């Protein structure tokens, strides 16, 4: 049994390990990991350095000891052997590359990780029964994410189908009631066979030495970290003690992370509340400004309307005055008092004033209307009425009188009193 230890683990590094192995043909996963670590997990730099080594160019991490060339002989030997070395390593790389296609490890291609988990669960229950810890029914990456999000311990079990201790461990230790109770109450449990592609990929990342293999993973310093490894056959009581020891030793990190997360959440809530208050204040200010703008616009339109009305009224009065002057200029001369065909008419205006003028019997009633219209004190719109008999004189064209009659045709006498009725407001 190995003592608990810590080891950083990320899904991205696992993917890079497999990709580097595919590109370089290096069989040892440990050698692949060391090469990537030397290049700070820079895939391109690590692959390029590996190709340089194969072509005879020294690695930047394993430079040859510096010594002067021993004359022209050394240079000549190097130049002669360079084409042969290049051809040899090129053919060797092509052979290795082709060999990986001809005889690939079927476990290196993960096509259905969830299917691998479900298949292992079914085979486990068929062999050991349904009394076991609750398996996490998802991929290894999903289990890591859930453990990180929920701030829980994640116990990973890699099952070696061909190992001599796997059967006894599963039957007597992993399925023990006290072990089941501990695992179900305090951690997530993810398990898979290393014969499955998903389990094989996790195995390459965790680098177990023997089976049964257990790894305790948790969020530590904001990274999912292996904080304990248990390898080899272990009895239920020892397993419980080891798991309890690992959890107790690292519980403070989860508590600290919970406090930090709560503080971040509270800060986020406070910031959100402040943002909401700011937005509410901003909306209120914008609403006030909108109302002020609307009020300014309303006053402006009102002022423009009043100004337009004033201009229209002035224009109307100007037109009216011009029309009065035109009517006055067009009036026929006033007949003399001695003219036997003249008619003396006294007009009573709405303002109680009186106006007197003579007209000719042969003139149209329109002349009377034009005369009154040209007066300054006459209303803008009016009608002329006679008393005996009481009637309205048709002084302007209408449907009944398209052509207004003459004074004689209207039945006026030599002297008449007519009344001017104001119709301006009607």
From TrEMBL:
Bias type Basic and acidic residues, positions: 284-329
Which keywords, in A-to-Z order, does the entry hold?
Coiled coil, Cytoplasm, Endoplasmic reticulum, Lipid droplet, Unfolded protein response
GO molecular function annotations of the record = ubiquitin binding
UniProt-annotated location(s): Cytoplasm; Endoplasmic reticulum; Lipid droplet
Per UniProt, residues of the UBX domain are 338-420
Biological processes annotated in GO? ERAD pathway; response to unfolded protein
Looking up Pfam families in the UniProt record yields: FAF1, UBA_8, UBX
Q: Which domain of life is it from?
A: Eukaryota
Major location (coarse): cytoplasm
Fetch the PANTHER family from UniProt.
FAS-ASSOCIATED FACTOR 2 (PTHR23322:SF1), FAS-ASSOCIATED PROTEIN (PTHR23322)
- The entry's protein name is FAS-associated factor 2
Source organism (scientific name): Mesocricetus auratus (Golden hamster)
Gene this chain is encoded by:
Faf2
């Amino acid at each position: 049994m190995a003592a608990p230890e810590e080891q950083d683990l990320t899904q991205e590094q696992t993917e890079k390990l497999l990709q580097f192995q595919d590109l370089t043909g290096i069989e040892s996963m440990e050698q692949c990991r060391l090469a990537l670590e030397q290049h700070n997990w820079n895939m391109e730099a690590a692959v390029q350095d590996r190709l340089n080594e194969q072509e005879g160019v020294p690695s930047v991490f394993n430079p040859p000891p510096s010594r002067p060339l021993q004359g022209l002989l050394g240079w000549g030997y190097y130049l002669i052997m360079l084409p042969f070395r290049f051809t040899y390593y090129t053919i060797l790389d092509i052979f290795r590359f082709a060999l990986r296609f001809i005889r690939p490890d079927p476990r290196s291609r993960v096509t259905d990780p969830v299917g691998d988990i479900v298949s292992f669960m079914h085979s486990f229950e068929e062999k050991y029964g349904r009394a076991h810890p609750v398996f996490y029914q998802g991929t290894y990456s999903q289990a890591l994410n859930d453990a990180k999000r929920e701030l829980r311990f994640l116990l990973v079990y890699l099952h070696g189908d061909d190992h001599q201790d796997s059967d006894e461990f599963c039957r007597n230790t992993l399925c023990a009631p006290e072990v089941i109770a501990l695992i179900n109450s305090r951690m997530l449990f993810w398990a898979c066979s290393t014969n499955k592609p998903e389990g094989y990929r996790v195995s390459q990342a965790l680098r177990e030495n023997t089976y049964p293999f257990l790894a305790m993973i948790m969020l530590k310093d904001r990274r999912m970290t292996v904080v304990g490894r248990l390898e080899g056959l272990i009895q239920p009581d020892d397993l419980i003690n080891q798991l309890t020891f690992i959890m107790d030793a690292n519980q403070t990190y989860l508590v600290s992370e919970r406090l930090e997360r709560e503080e971040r959440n509270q800060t986020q809530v406070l910031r959100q509340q402040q943002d909401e208050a700011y937005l509410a204040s901003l909306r209120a200010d914008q609403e006030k400004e909108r109302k002020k703008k609307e009020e300014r616009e309303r006053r402006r339109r009102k002022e423009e309307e009043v100004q337009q009305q004033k201009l229209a009224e002035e224009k109307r009065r100007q037109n009216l005055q011009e029309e009065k002057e035109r009517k006055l200029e067009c009036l026929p001369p006033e007949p003399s008092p001695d003219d036997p065909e003249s008619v003396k008419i006294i007009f009573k205006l709405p303002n109680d004033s009186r106006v007197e003028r003579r007209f000719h019997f042969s003139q149209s009633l329109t002349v009377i209307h034009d005369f009154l219209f040209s007066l300054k004190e006459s209303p803008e719109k009016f009608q002329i009425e006679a008393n005996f008999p009481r009637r309205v004189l048709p002084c302007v064209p209408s449907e009944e009188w398209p052509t207004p009659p003459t004074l004689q045709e209207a039945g006026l006498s030599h002297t008449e009193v007519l009344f001017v009725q104001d119709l301006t407001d009607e």
